Q: What sequence folds into this?
């Protein structure tokens, strides 16, 4: 869907917009979002970044998904101008326009962003969503000359409800929103004036205040190994530098000894070198070490580029 096609839906008589969930925690589905909720979310983002009628927005993201739709809504409610960039891994490769006040990208487009900034393209604020940003990219983005933020949110909340600057592990909620911990130990979001109201997630988080939290991982991914709860995402963060760009993830496998155990799945059909296996072991405390390394020649991804995490339970 192009922005022009989305604008026709935005201005029609329907009170809602249909959007697709990413499929990262189940089968993708179509949900209906109230336009009033989308407008509230867009206005919160515009307030956060000072977007007004004199601003320029840019997006290479398809309006089939919430991230692309919401950039269009932010333009509509603020009166800003918007540039629809090519939908590719290098959307800024030929950009020679004026300074961009807010750009939305996915992790696959980070290198192109860095290249554009080195060429002198002025981009004041960037939001990166859709999938986790690698630790190596975080380091580069934290000192790239633009203010770059990771997003936390979902389709049901009309895009992000919180942002964190690259290089910082603390998310801060958008204006009008707050967070707490529910009885399951997961993040509870109060969306304020939005019709969604209070929303319980499956994300394990450390809530620092009603407007600040650290994301630890997905409750659905937690590995209960001999009574110790392991967060695969934490293990992955510790191993990211060791793995030197290899595609991998940590998942659970049934164990007669521990109930569940952590295993590593690595994209490809070749076994890891012994030296790398040794570095993986040395990088982790004993209770976090994967009990096995499994090669997967064809890992699966969602439509938005998120790696699908298999389990062997």
A:
């Amino acid at each position: 869907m192009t922005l022009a096609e989305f604008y026709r839906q935005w201005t029609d008589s329907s009170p809602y917009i249909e959007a697709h969930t990413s499929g990262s925690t189940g089968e993708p589905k179509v949900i209906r979002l109230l336009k009033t909720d989308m407008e509230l979310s867009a206005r919160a983002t515009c307030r956060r970044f000072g977007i007004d009628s004199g601003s320029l927005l840019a997006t290479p993201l398809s309006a089939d998904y919430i991230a692309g739709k919401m950039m269009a809504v932010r333009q509509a409610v603020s009166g800003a101008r918007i540039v629809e960039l090519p939908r590719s891994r290098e959307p800024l490769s030929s950009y020679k326009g004026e300074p961009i006040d807010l750009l939305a990208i996915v992790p696959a487009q980070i290198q192109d962003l860095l290249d554009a900034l080195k060429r002198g393209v002025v981009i004041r604020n960037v939001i990166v969503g859709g999938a986790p940003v690698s630790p190596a990219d975080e380091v580069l983005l934290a000192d790239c000359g633009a203010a770059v933020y990771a997003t936390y949110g979902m389709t049901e909340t009309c895009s992000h409800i919180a942002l964190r600057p690259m290089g910082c592990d603390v998310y801060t909620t958008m204006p009008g929103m707050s967070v707490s911990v529910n009885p399951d130990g997961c993040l509870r979001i109060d969306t304020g004036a939005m019709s969604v109201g209070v929303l319980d997630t499956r994300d394990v988080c450390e809530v620092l205040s009603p407007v600040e939290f650290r994301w630890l991982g997905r409750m659905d991914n937690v590995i209960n190994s001999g009574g110790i709860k392991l967060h695969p995402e934490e293990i992955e963060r510790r191993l990211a530098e060791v793995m030197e760009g290899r595609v991998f993830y940590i998942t659970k496998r049934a164990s007669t000894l521990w109930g569940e155990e952590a295993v590593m799945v690595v994209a490809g059909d070749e076994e890891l070198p012994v030296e790398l296996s040794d570095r993986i072991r040395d990088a982790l405390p004993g209770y976090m070490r994967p009990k096995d390394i499994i090669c997967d020649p064809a890992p699966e991804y969602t439509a938005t580029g998120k790696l699908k995490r298999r389990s062997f339970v």
Remarks:
- The first strand starts at residue 16 and ends at 20.
- The chain has a mean pLDDT of 92.
- The helical segments are 3-10, 35-49, 66-78, 110-119, 135-142, 232-239, 274-282.
- The two ends are 39 Å apart (CA to CA).
